[in-house]
Amino acid sequence: MRAQFVLSEIGVGLRRNLTMTIAVVVSVALSLALFGGSLLMRDQVDNMKGYWYDKVNVSIFLCNKADAESVAKCAKGAVTAQQKKDIEADLKKLDVVQTVSYESADEAFKHYKEQFGSSPMAGSITPDQMQESFRVKLKDPEKFAVVATAFAGRDGVQSVQDQKGILENLFGLLNGMNWVAFYVMILMLVVALMLIVNTVRVSAFSRRRETGIMRLVGASSFYIQAPFIMEAAFAGLIGGAVASAMLLVGRYFLIDHGLDLAHKLNLINFIGWDAVFAKLPLVLAVSVLIPALAAFIALRKYLKV
């Protein structure tokens, strides 16, 4: 097969169907940008889970005098010094526990003032209304149930709270957004495949005379089909390149500059450039393989010579 002939046929096909080729490029670019974005979003969620779960504490809040009057679990009164010692000792005996720290009511009040000092409610809160607590660092954040089961109904314990549950709501929202992007990507990819199939059909029909002659002189099916397949692959590659550029610009604009989320949301450990560059080869490979495969399947059915 002469490469020059194949390349010339590719150029002819792209020029004859320029509008549809542009439509293919745009749809492939958008679908693959969403594809790459969904992969990066998944990496971001996993990265955030690894970062935040490592900082998650289980909080065991102890009964105070106010709780003894209003909370059923504290009906026996405020926690005693002996109960606190027993709770701390039993916590340290658990294999799932890494560290245990105690926070007094005064320390809790101080932290409250630091975080919510500007709130109108802050002036009405007094130290004796704050709860003492044990902050428990687990070796595995998934083992929260072990601590909750052991201490939830214990005398002197008002409640056992897992900070992981709060984070799960955030991660659930992010995962939901990721799935929406994935489904939109599937829709755009279907549109791109339909455009590719239609473009190949039109191109094959417009060149049916040439392909008929090639068949008569003994050209193989692959020799006849190759220009059409390479046209689709080339258009897809352009779309993949555009999608890759969109991912790079998106990372640069959203995180490093423009919106500058890396500095505005410094509590979030954003994925780095290495994660973005790692996805680009996959995006480019998909941009070539899927259009080429779609063209091959379309040609088997619609190329009549």
Automatic annotation (TrEMBL):
Which InterPro entries does the record associate with it?
ABC3_permease_C, FtsX, FtsX_actino, FtsX_ECD
State the superkingdom.
Bacteria
Question: What membrane topology is annotated for this entry?
Answer: Multi-pass membrane protein
**Keywords of the record:** Cell cycle, Cell division, Cell membrane, Membrane, Transmembrane, Transmembrane helix
Domain named ABC3 transporter permease C-terminal: which ranges?
Answer: 184-304
Plastid found in the keyword field: no
Report the Pfam families cross-referenced here.
Answer: FtsX, FtsX_ECD
Q: Does the keyword Electron transport apply?
A: no
Q: What does the UniProt entry say about where the protein is found?
A: Cell membrane
Q: Which GO terms describe its biological process?
A: cell division
Please report the stretch or stretches of sequence annotated as the FtsX extracellular domain. Answer: 56-160
Entry's transmembrane regions = 21-41, 180-200, 232-255, 275-299
* Entry GO CC: plasma membrane
Give the protein's function.
Answer: Part of the ABC transporter FtsEX involved in cellular division.
Q: Which family does it belong to?
A: Belongs to the ABC-4 integral membrane protein family. FtsX subfamily.
Give the matching PANTHER family: CELL DIVISION PROTEIN FTSX
Query: What quaternary arrangement does the UniProt entry report?
Result: Forms a membrane-associated complex with FtsE.
- This protein's name: Cell division protein FtsX
